[in-house]
Design a protein that fits this description.
The protein is mainly beta. Helix content is 6%, strand content 67%. The chain is globular. The chain has one domain (6-259): Beta Barrel (Porin). The chain has a 14-stranded antiparallel barrel. The protein has 2 helices and 14 strands. Keywords: Signal.
Length: 260
């Protein structure tokens, strides 16, 4: 990877001394994806609409455990495309949670036939019990561009269902996410993270895509391991590595976050 997370890490050391309860979070991440080309770089600013408590709970998911509303802006891209996102998460009456996200992609025409990409995501979840959340949503995507001088466009709608189980006692426990997305193919993802304490957690995810019709280029399933460590309530580093189940590395990721 060609970039460094050192500047934000130094900021994390500075802000961590002042972090008791925070309402702001800045994250920077890098991803090296096999067969893609350039590294991805991403940056996100998230604003929590109330203080995020830090006592007795894993720092990583404290906003979720305390049902803290938030909004965010995000950028990620490489030399071929710039993607901009705006979204938020709202908890309603301790029973419902609403998530929405808008994304716009601006492509470099010298390396891609695409020109624009639009993405809208909306979902609603319901807390069946304090530990279990179930829900569903819809994703809409639109892309256009020129191929041999002819303008082309395409759009797609995807249905999404999910479940989340979270059980934390004295700072340790499980956070498990299950998701299925359905359009021309079925995509199934399982993510299980164990918190050893407030600071350290390890997660294992598995992604599988199942074609509904004959595909000459089937995709391999991907398994990924991530480790997340909070040096203080205000600064964390996360590293991950993904591999194809048929063999070979799929991705390497590195990220850091600062709360203040």
């Amino acid at each position: 990877m060609k970039h460094s997370l050192l500047p934000l890490a130094l900021c994390g050391l500075f802000f961590s001394g002042f972090s008791v309860a925070a309402q702001n979070e800045i994250s920077v991440g890098l991803a090296d994806i096999k067969n893609y080309g350039d590294d991805f770089i991403g940056i996100e600013y998230k604003r929590y609409l109330s203080d995020v408590p830090v006592s007795g709970q894993p720092f990583l998911i404290s906003p979720y455990l305390n049902k803290t509303n938030s909004v965010f802006v995000r950028y990620f891209g490489d030399s071929a495309v710039d993607r901009y996102e705006l979204g938020g998460e709202w908890f309603v009456d301790d029973k419902w949670v609403i998530n929405s996200k808008l994304r716009y992609g601006d492509f470099d025409r010298s390396v891609s036939f695409r020109e624009r990409y639009l993405y809208a995501d909306f979902d609603a979840g319901y807390f069946v019990t304090p530990e279990w959340q179930v829900g569903g949503g819809v994703i809409y995507e639109y892309a256009d561009g020129r191929i041999y001088g002819t303008h082309r466009s395409a759009n797609e709608t995807t249905a999404r269902v999910f479940g989340r189980y979270t059980s934390i006692t004295s700072g340790s426990g499980w956070d498990i996410n299950m998701e299925m997305m359905l359009n021309d193919l079925a995509r199934v993802e399982l993510d299980a993270r164990y918190f050893f304490n407030q600071r350290f957690s390890a997660g294992l995810s598995y992604l599988a895509e199942i074609d509904n019709d004959s595909n000459a280029y089937p995709r391999d399933d991907i398994a990924e391991l991530t480790l997340d460590y909070w040096f203080t309530p205000g600064w964390s580093i996360q590293a991950g590595a993904g591999a194809y189940t048929s063999g070979g590395m799929a991705s390497i990721t590195l990220a850091t976050s600062v709360r203040f």
